[in-house]
Protein 1
Amino acid sequence: MTNYILKRLGQGLLTVFLTVSTVFVLIRMAPGDPAVSYAGPLATTEQLDAVREQFGLNKPVLEQYWIFLQQLFTGNLGQSYSFQAPAMQVVAERMPYTLTLATASILLTAVVAIPLGVWMSRRPDTGKELGVNVLTIAGQSMPDFWTGIMLLTGFAVLVPIFPASGFATWGGLVLPTITIAILQIALISRMVRREMTANFAAPYLTVARSRGVKNSVLTWRYAMGNSAIPVFTALGTRFAAMLNGVVVVEVVFAWPGVGSLIVRALETRDYPLIQATVLLTALLAVGVQLVIDLAYPLLDPRVRLGKAATA
Amino acid sequence: MTASTVTEQPKFTEQPLLEVRDFQVELITDAGIIRAVDSVSFSIHRGETVTIIGESGSGKSTTAMGILRLLPEDLAVLSGTVLIDGVDVTADPKAIDKVRGKTLALIPQDPMTALSPVHSIGSQLFEAIRIAGAASAKDKGALQARAVRLLEQVHIPTPEKQLKKYPHQLSGGMLQRVLIAIALASEPQLLVADEPTSALDVTVQGGILDLLLELQEQRGIGILMITHDLGVARLISDRIHVMKDGSFVESGDVQQIVDHPATEYTRALLAAVPVLGPWDETPAATTLTTTGASHD
């Protein structure tokens, strides 16, 4: 078990390292000049050179990478150009907002999608099921910026129940959470239905039915118990993805999280800030993935106990 | 070898455990309605083993699953009469709940897939005991004791240890014994065994059949055996119904059918089994001579 954890941890750190290195190269290959963004369009060549000198951008790329690696191991990725503050600190301040939004979204998704998927699996080919099915396809097809704007128009403008932007009150959490959850609910509920349907057709379920096990027990203990692993994995993976910043939704709702931060960092070519954001979100995503991997043995005795010798 | 004293009692005075009259199963498929089982009638009394034998697709398993009402409700239309211990399960879909996990139990075809892989042997056995009402859910000691006794009855070594195990940790033969123990939890009077040995290694098949015969002798259980293997049928049956394309083409005493098959189909089934004579020297013969339950 310890070996397993260490191996996964090593793989995770390698993933993070490769991610930040790739991003380091890619942002320098992309068009645009941080010095121009920083000094403004009217800056003279001398001013631009001074800025490049100040940020160390006049050095060869390999040397910049070497400095970056040193910074990486000290955990200090340098000053953000636009915030004039340590980049890691700027990102760390935004992180709780994204974490809050992601947690709320994944909880709402789980609470709605699991019962909905189970409900659909137990009423295959009925009119109601078909209706819900169409709704989930719609939910899957609506782009989140559009859903977000529609919800804003409806519940912040026409009927002003919730604030339109920011996170000043808990009410501000409602609309962005719903916007994110709609797509996730559509995806996860269809997955739950698929898994449950497969398990309802499994021989062990028929045998359990033959010995008088009640329908509710067949559904929740047997079919859900066996569907739990893929559903849990999907929820965890989605959660990890949300931690990388729910960019579009954060921008639509002016949510002060890392998603909207990275948009600004990219616009201003704020290299340290981009690198810090990528580093922190990649670390978090890998951490969540590790937790999922470690939870497998708890959910599945086949993983926990391995293929034991037969009697 | 099968005739226990119970089967020699006069049969007509008592109500049969299972009485099937004009039973029909129609399956709704994309290609239209298929009559998978066409007007079959038979009965099983206490202590009797009745076998339905036939090739794949003959409708034998559909008959068994139809009687147990385990076919998808929306895809299978049942008609005729099936009385299980006097309860008519075809007329009222809810009636089957009165006999499931009580008088009636199923021994499934493939033991490797017949238990939930994420629940322990013990939890699935305890559940069956609770449903049978043999021990209350709160009395853990009584549940445990009953579970251990059931596993002992099916000759599983170190039962306490097996309870904590999960299905993937046991062999097919052991799992089939566990499933028989689960079936016995409710002291059933009728066992429906749907090809109980066909997924097992030949070396353990004999042990499972021996166990079924032993339980039948001890308890006078009636068994409906579904098989495609005339060797199995001959070993344990009192009566045989040969099934083809949804109906019985031949019925009668096992020895009579083996010795004097009336139809070409039965002759073909007989010919498909290489080992029928007791002195046959083909290696597979050992599976049918049941030289003991200790094979697995």
Protein 2
Amino acid sequence: MVDTLFYLFATLTLVSALLVVVNRKPVNSVVAMIVTIVGVAANLFLLDAPFLATLLIMVYAGAVIVLFLFVIMLMDPDVPALKRGWFGTALLGVVFFALCAAGTVWLFGFSGAVPVIAAPTENMPAALAYSNDATAFGWPLFTKYVVLVEASALLLLAAMVAVFMLHSRRRGNEESCGCCCKK
Amino acid sequence: MTLSHFLVLAGLLFGIGLTGAVVRRSVLVVYMSLEMMLTASMLALVAFSKYCNLMDGAVFCFFIITIAAAEVAVGLALIVSLFRKRKTVDLDDLQSLKN
């Protein structure tokens, strides 16, 4: 049963990920990306991480992808016509992906470098062992990785200030920088 | 299912994202491919975390989500201001550094 679910969700994820890359309209890519994220979240459910799966759906499919949709709606970019040499680019992409896929499947599937059996569950402190409830995240997050939590708070603050500065400029400044950007 | 199933899935997803980031010419699709690579790395981290029976990989996913959110906010703001100035999102048209 679980195997069937895994193969179902893996197929869903990979097919919709291919659709993201292959589609020519950006809106179709965004919708396929939502399906990809839901597939990855389903795989996280299979890995006993329901909290992370919920977080992934809420943050990625709920905020990030909707932000993409807003930006596409704001810009409304026209779908470009197929340029000369698109077939060579597509062929290059197929060859590149085939090399990546062959390396991945050999390394993780058949080379024997990945251990088959899971690590033993005893002689592990209970606070550090893998668990599927949300309270298990709090202990490492605020003891072992507290510096990283502070750093990511600083990163979010810096991103917020940067976006604010980027968009709070007056319109008139755009004409005055003609030295650097050629029309 | 073993660890290698999830690792192969994450690696294939990462490969699709890498191909999209290299091959596609639209800035928005390149950004979505970057997001896809981050998601694939999250899947691999949780799989390692589950099979090593340690919480650390799952905790690291928080930081990946944080970095992805910050990156998308700044990147989409840059794309919007680029589109206002140059009226295009095609990477082939953005070659003013080339000559």
